[in-house]
Amino acid sequence: MARNFPHWLKAYMEYTRDSESPTSFHFWTAVSTVAGALRRRVWIGMQKFVWTPNFYIVLVAPAGIVAKSTSIGVGQHLLSQIPGINFGPESLTWQALTDSLSFSTEGVKYTGDDGLEHVIAQSAISVFSGELGTFLSIEDDKFTSFLIRMWDSQEGDFIHKTRGTGETKIANPWLNLISCTTPSWLSQNFKENMIGGGFTSRIIFIFGETKRMLIPYPDEVIHSDEHRRLEQDLVNDLRSISLLSGAYHLSSPARLWGRDWYIRSSTAPRPAHLAGERYSGYLARKQTHIHKLAMVLAAAKRDARMVEEEDLIEAEDCISSTEPDMNRVFASIGLEKEARHRNEIIAIVQTYGWLEPNDILARCSNSMSAKEFDNALKAALRTKLLHPQTRNGILGFALPLQVTSNVRSASI
Fold first, then answer.
1. In 10 A of CB 321, how many CB atoms?
2. Using one digit for the tens of pLDDT, what is the confidence trace for 162-198?
3. 134 and 52 in contact (C-beta within 8 Å)?
4. What DSSP letter does each residue of 200-222 carry, written as one string?
């Protein structure tokens, strides 16, 4: 069936042009939405392992500024209109998550390379969670280990045994997750030794702190008739995407590009912004991230289950563009308390442009004592991340111009 749009992701961006949230938030929500439609019905087979199009995406922004939950809600609304899609609850234990996966098991028919019809079982769910803290029990090592296993999405059954209920078997489990959190939650709950490890290296972190534009009345941006038409056309195309099944193959030009990229990335010196050891896990999995995204991009553009060179190039560009965000997200994790407090003061001053000391303290009173505030403020001044500025005879503080420009350039 002919599609309404040549590129579903680009059409989704047009559909969300009435939103103030950062463009990157909408793009990665669209990626998660297409991934949720594809489920484990498609894959790229590498003989001893497979790549499947599931993601762990986390939107990171200060509370109440860029409508993180609202952004992912748009994608969930579209995906909820597609038959056969199973959603997991936003808050649960990993044991309950296994139950949710087991309840979603179904058979998928596809035509193999031998021209014959085959059936493969899948247990696929998508989770759209407005608060990462309600979904993820960070202290539960079994939960994070389970999430690692689900992201890898390798073929075979997952068996969970309990004393009370016996054995739970999940056929080819598959989990797709998009969630939201704040920098402060990450700094308080993620430890330094988690960065670069198995779990965080599987997450695509997207950072945002400013609205892309101010829109007082969204209904003035897109007329209601156009809005309804765009939504219906997006849903219809998403339904077509959801029916794709079987193995994706790499075209010959795609394989040539992929080989060249792999050799270059494995032998060239690391880029300066990824030089630290904390990025080793991410770099080891970057190839997987790229091929997962390439499948989503291919499905967004065509029914043919073929990953073209352009899909890999576009995927690599999109994945690489998240790396400045990753730097910003990781910046406050593992820092000492004084450094976290210093960063909080800087973030507050950046929001308002200029503040008197007492105004800054008032906004920090719930997170630090007066003594901790004094020490953090001195640290910010000592490191020249803040500088004194007098306005109308009143002493206050502002960010140096070079700091402001650096912060802006790190946003996508």
1. 13
2. 556 667 788 999 999 999 998 888 877 876 656 656 8
3. no
4. GGGEEEEE--S-SS--S-GGGTS
Residues contacting residue 248 through CB under 8 Å, at least 6 positions apart: 42, 43, 44, 295, 298, 305, 306, 307
Q: What's the N-to-C CA distance of the chain in angstroms?
A: 35
**pLDDT tens digits, 90-125:** 766 777 788 889 889 999 999 998 999 999 999 999
What are the phi and psi torsion angles at 130 (to 5°)? -70, -25
Residue 184 tokens read as: 């402060």
Residue 175 near residue 54, CB atoms below 8 Å: yes
Amino acid at 175: L
Cβ atoms of 135 and 90 within 8 Å: the answer is: yes
Tokens 């490890």, located at residue? 197
How confident is the model over 299-335, as pLDDT tens digits? 999 999 999 999 999 999 999 999 988 877 876 666 6
Backbone angles phi, psi at 365, to 5 degrees: -65, -25
High-pLDDT (> 90) share of the chain, %? 57
Q: What is the DSSP letter of 162?
A: E
For 194-218, write each residue's pLDDT tens digit.
665 688 889 999 999 888 888 989 8
Is there a contact between 38 and 239 (Cβ–Cβ < 8 Å)? no
Tell me the pairing of strands 173-181 and 56-60. parallel
The answer to whether the beta carbons of residues 292 and 28 sit under 8 Å apart is: no
Tell me if the pTM is above 0.70: yes
Q: Is 126 exposed, middle or buried (0-12, 13-18, 19+ CB in 10 A)?
A: buried
CB of 86 closer than 8 Å to CB of 123: no
Domains of the chain, earliest start first = 8-330 (3.40.50), 337-409 (1.10.10.10)
Residues 6+ apart with CB under 8 A from 391: 354
